[in-house]
Write a structure and sequence with these properties.
single chain, Arc Repressor Mutant, subunit A, about 65% helix, about 5% strand
Amino acid sequence: MFERDTTVGTMSSQVAKILGLRIVSGEFKPGEVLPIENELCRIYGVSRSTIREAVRNLMAKRLIEVAPKLGTRVLPFAEWNLLDPEVLSWRLNSQFDTRIVEDLYEMRFCFEPRACFLAARDGTADDLEMVRRKYHDLEAYFGQPDLAATADAEFHLAIIAATRNGLFVSIGGAVKTALRVSFAVMRSQGQMPRHDLSHYDAVLNHILAREGDAAAKAMHRLLEISRQHLLDAIGGGTNGATGP
């Protein structure tokens, strides 16, 4: 029987998390077959219905498939739902290294500057007011790492919401997960995010002024600094730059 994780809701969710981590970490490789249902029940000390619900959860995330006579097989990496918040969290927790940071920030470089452009162009007055409020929350929590990290994530999410693009909002969930796990990793390394508010202020002011191109450039610069700080925290930095 595994030790119950009180931060994860149901028993089936906990089993799904354990199996998911074993898959994304490479312990179960693509093409490999998971232990049969009765064996999983024995290993984790849970009922067959719990195992079946956990398997359905992982199937929905495209980590595994169940085929008659073949059993439960791990799908190729290319088929995984990598933007699923849980899959992304499991990957980040199991292999938080220079490669995953670079992959993560390549996605953010492609996505968030454009979100700033769209927020400046298409955001309503209420949307932009929300961006302003989230910036002031970050400002108010400056020097309080836990609260500032949450405010940082909410600032980014407010910008994404202001794009008025439903697909962008969906991807925003991945950004939130990435920021949460990144903060946890930095804490484990004895470091805290350094929120240089001048870079956030530049993003905010360009969005409020409806200067889309300038807002995009400001966000790109903010992400460059954030990326370097995270690489420094895990020992993969190149120049010791600091930032948020």
